[in-house]
Amino acid sequence: MGTVLTELGIVVVERDPFVAEDISASLLHHFPFARCRVFRDLEQARPVLSPQGAPLLAVLSWPQAGPGLAPREDLVALLGPAAILIDASPDDLPTGPTTWQILAKPFAQEMLITAATAALAGVTI
User: Fold this and answer.
1) The CATH number of the domain where 49 resides is what?
2) Which of 56, 76, 58 has its CA nearest to residue 124?
3) 3, part of any domain
4) Per-block average pLDDT, block size 10, for the chain (125 residues)?
5) Domain residue limits at 60
6) Alpha helices in the chain (DSSP H)
7) What is the per-residue pLDDT for 52?
8) What is the structure's pLDDT at 66?
9) Ramachandran area for residue 18 (φ above 0: left; ψ -120 to 50: alpha; else beta)
């Protein structure tokens, strides 16, 4: 039997405000106990991206937040074990023990929830 999350911080990094709102609304509907913050880029989100404290799920739009802004090792330290990379390739995933997930746009709400659940499966509370 898995651990039941009672507190969860969600950070969404997405430039398109409509996509960001859809992502956050879908996740908050599924995880009603969560707190969600939305940022346009990784640099804005960096101060709140800490794997310390409450479990954290990070959802990043990869072309905007990934390769040019931070090396993979930096992202692993910044995001912790639970992340969803949107429009990333398998080569962008870090090596080692993470449960990071990849989603390609367009994706359905069910796909987002499945990826979030899989990413959070690796989080210890």
Assistant:
1) 3.40.50.2300
2) 56
3) no
4) 64 93 96 93 82 75 60 70 87 74 93 95 69
5) 8-120
6) 17-30, 42-45, 62-65, 72-79, 109-120
7) 63
8) 45
9) alpha
